[in-house]
Amino acid sequence: MNDYLKELISSGLRSHDRGNFDYREIKIKSDVIKTAEGSADVSIGDTRVLVGIKLDVDEPMPDKPDEGNLITSAELLPLASPDFEPGPPNPESIELARVVDRALRSAEAIDMKSLFIEENKVWSVFVDIYVLNYDGNLFDASLLAAMTALMKTKKPIYKDNKVIRENLNEYLKVNNIVVSTTFAKIGDILILDPTGEEESIMNARYTIANDGNNIRAIQKGLYGSFKEEEIDNMVEISFKKYNELKLLIENATK
Amino acid sequence: MEKPQLIVNGLRLDGRKPDELRPIKIETDIIKNASGSAYMEWGNNKVIAAVYGPKEALPKHTGDPEKAIVKCVYSMTPFSSLEEHGRSGPNRRAIEISKVTKEVFENIILVENFPRSEIDIFIEILQADGGTRAAGITAAAVALATSGIPMRDIPYAVSAGRVGDTVIIDLNKLEDNYSDADMPVAIAPRNNEILLMQMDGGLTREQFKKALEMIKNAGKVITKIQREAIKKPYEDLINKYGAKYE
Amino acid sequence: MKIVLPGDEILDRPIHMENTFVENNKTYTAVLAMLHDDKLIPLEGLWYPKVGDKVVGRVEEDKFSIYEIDLNGPYSGLLISKFVKSPLLVGDIIEATVKEIDRYNTIILYKSRKLYGGKLISVKPSKIPRIIGRNNTMLKQLIEGTKCNISVGANGYIWIKGNNIHLAIKAITKIAKEAHTGGLTNRISDMLGVKNGETTTNS
What we know:
The complex is a heterotrimer of chains A (about 250), B (about 250) and C (about 200). With about 250 residues, chain A is of the alpha+beta class. In chain A, about 25% of the residues lie in helices and about 30% in strands. Chain A has helices at about 5-10, 90-105, 140-150, 195-200, 230-250, and strands at about 25-30, 40-45, 45-60, 70-75, 115-120, 120-135, 155-160, 160-165, 180-185, 190, 205-210, 215-220. In chain A, strands 1, 2, 3, 4, 5 and 6 form a six-stranded mixed sheet that branches. A four-stranded antiparallel sheet of chain A has the order 10-9-11-12. In chain A, strands 7-8 form a two-stranded antiparallel ribbon. With about 250 residues, chain B is α+β, with helices and mostly antiparallel strands. The N and C termini of chain B lie far apart (about 65 Å). Chain C has about 200 residues and is of the alpha+beta class. Chain C has four helices and 16 strands. Chain C has helices at about 130, 135-145, 165-180, 185-190, and strands spanning about 1-5, 10, 20-25, 25-30, 35, 40, 55-65, 65-70, 75-80, 95-100, 105-115, 120, 150, 155-160, 195, 200. Chain C has a five-stranded mixed barrel with strand order 7-8-9-11-10. Chain C has a three-stranded antiparallel sheet with strand order 1-5-6, with no helix packed on it. Chain C has a three-stranded antiparallel sheet with strand order 2-4-3, with no helix packed on it. Chain C is flat and about 55 Å long. Chain C starts with a strand and ends with a strand. Chains in contact: A-B, A-C, B-C.
């Protein structure tokens, strides 16, 4: 561990106005992109993520002929950080997309049966996560944005083999609100909602998604390890944060 | 779909006159990590531009020992169009736009001041409604002006076109799809130097001249909006605290 | 006093200064700046290395006889190892002086001193003069008010060490944001609880 890190830990990792388990200021706006069927713009501190939702008519998966599809992808835009390179999706963006996808899918956030149109035709819901500015904790920002966008997503109309996207009235059926809480481990210290700088010195990361009742997804990241007591602590904090985060989503989607 | 009547009683479908621009709003400093950035709404277009650098050109062999190299990436999100979900990754149109956009900024950035380095310009189209390359260039010029990277001028861009016998300015998506000519142009306003010009369709020489004149007139409006956006954060603080005199 | 934008004419005769260019015997600003009495004060601008500039940087590579120093820009500083008192490791923070520059902007450094512990932050180089202040007044105020060691590099890196790093960063951020306004020195002294060079409150 280098000098700077030791000093930072001993002097208290964060400034006096932010505790180890406090979120930075969270701002959520929905319906920001009119060309998308649903959208949301979320900032946690200086981290900023935009999510756009599009629905297209598709074939169902062979094992679930009466359900729609969910396809989640993420872009770490090069404009969001000097460390993001242009090119095909890298492991970080793939991991981000897959974790958000698992949280939404496991929590059954979207009513997948409501996406059924007719035999061999269902709606595919495309969730596109676009990172606009990176300052740590992309997981929580992305899931908040995805959840908010889905709650205000309008379903297109399928008529006479055509998709109509204007003058929509029906909302996508959302059954459950799922949020995530992401922790960083620096030395032996756990902190919630790491900034970019904190992520650059963390040795492990832990994300828990929950819907208030159940844990719906977990992702541990990086080379470090967690003890069981640490995990118990993080799970408890995650459930404590649920109502706070759920309220922010509800206020943005009234 | 049959071709719609784009001009009825001298007015366009969105109520504009042939030489009227859509409303433009610009806000700066929205991407904290970038050297300079801007968010722009131009009609129903929503665009983000960000500039990084100058930084070391990598890989090293791509650097130029005499000057900075300029790279540009223009891309559209898959949810930016009113139609179906777009495909990811740059398509050929985006690659061409990235190239001609880069050529605008290679001209006005004082690249000789930074040998062996690289300046990156990113343009992301979040919501598209025609004229996105012009919007991107206009926004990127603002982002660059706030970055401290030295430049000779602040370029603007706008498209002109033709519907029947009428030359129009600033085509939206519908007009773009059905017009008889489409011509995006970028200009460095100080000396009216043309830094980008593309065209397809058909224009007589008179129509071409008329289009350029309309573009320059529109340029006066666009330049004013760009300049106000660039100055705003500084002027706001000066209004609050007064200016510093050395 | 007015705000000028890149491409605006500032003098009707050719003068070669930093952040400007000459065209048709007139001088134009190349950056966003304030123009006051024919003097150009950049609001946004980069660091143009000059011999004698004091810089702060981080060791990024150790190449046998040379250390490459990250200077927050496109150019690394080169420090010749045999002139460095004790060996440096990658990640170490140093302050140094610019000894030589060639036309490709290769920067040779000397008179280096390792800075132990502390934290490195980055600000836009155009704000550095205001952070130092005339006759070092602003910097002295920062050091007094935060009781931190602070080393400011012309290249935009600032090293801070002490118990009040967060307060120092907050003050420096405010100075950078309001660098072009009046009354800043007093607002910063109020923020830090410093008056006439003496601390009046516990910050």
